[in-house]
Amino acid sequence: xxxxxxxxxxxxxxxxxxxxxxxxxxxxxxxxxxxxxxxxxxxxxxxxxxxxxxxxxxxxxxxxxxxxxxxxxxxxxxxxxxxxxxxxxxxxxxxxxxxxxxxxxxxxxxxxxxxxxxxxxxxxxxxxxxxxxxxxxxxxxxxxxxxxxxxxxxxxxxxxxxxxxxxxxxxxxxxxxxxxxxxxxxxxxxxxxxxxxxxxxxxxxxxxxxxxxxxxxxxxxxxxxxxxxxxxxxxxxxxxxxxxxxxxxxxxxxxxxxxxxxxxxxxxxxxxxxxxxxxxxxxxxxxxxxxxxxxxxxxxxxxxxxxxxxxxxxxxxxxxxxxxxxxxxxxxxxxxxxxxxxxxxxxxxxxxxxxxxxxxxxxxxxxxxxxxxxxxxxxxxxxxxxxxxxxxxxxxxxxxxxxxxxxxxxxxxxxxx
Length: 417
Ligand code: PGA
Ligand code: ZN
Known about the structure:
Distance between the termini: 31 Å
Shape: globular
Helix content: 40-55%
Strand order of the largest sheet: 5-6-7-11-12-13-14-15
Bound molecules: 2-phosphoglycolic acid, zinc ion
């Protein structure tokens, strides 16, 4: 289908951390409209495409997005208004060429993705199909509901850093529906909050993704409390609920060592520690267990954990097809954490997805710690048939926008896991 672009524009809006991000609009010449707002990470991988910030200390501590907005409304608009695009791929190719850099630093990954995503919405409107179906058609996938990985506890850069590891999440493998899953997780979340209120004698504040962030004494305690919360809510760890962890090890890797729980571990020591956690707790997925540059370590870790837990790459892979290819060849992981804004076009993210699936990998569609009320990620996770979706906790509307959209799709589109 040919889509002629009438205009694109973007403005600066705020994300869930109160930091600037972009809201873009794309209007086609037949009057169909697409709009999209973008998330932003805190725990960013160094191989991510560059999010353009104004660096003007007088506004939002330098984090303003006025230049990126102007790049959309002026530069990109001039280049694509009046042109026909036969596909998402054709539009994305044009944006990549227009930018001309490897990491999208000229126009900005945020400027580019905002147009890529708003165009997808406009095309879905033009075709008269639901957004998830349009995403599925872009990637050649068959829609289905992903299992949610729901944030229970946070540390690292998502909280005060009291404990180094970043997120402990729960999954409900036996649940048959999305609504059952959310109900079970809500029970566990409440039980965790009550237990920790007793233990720390304070009402717990929530972290960036809405998880609880008490001053755990150690990583060990973080996992143990998750298990206790599951039991206290009347469920069985392993059978009813399992844990997943985002170690986000790049953020405590310094001078060649992992600084964890007061210890200094080398790569092998870190792998031993992860293997202990896996044996002691019902963990089914380990994300970023090692630093993003520690490829030898990743190979050894994967050798050790393969078949026991998902070995999930976030900072390691950055949704970058070249890095996914390398991890497949080097046998460094078996699961892709897919965040579109790490690579900044839908087409390149779809390529990372295709590579991962062709290698038999698991795929987790993920939000960022800074989010907006836009719910496109739910449609993307459904359309691209993710095994899991990682959106954060069940306590803040920028997270719930996605869960609620999944509930809507479960109910009205009759999608199942
Ligand atoms: P970010 O982290 O969105 O803050 O980068 C999320 C994650 O590490 O998975
Ligand atoms: Zn991560």
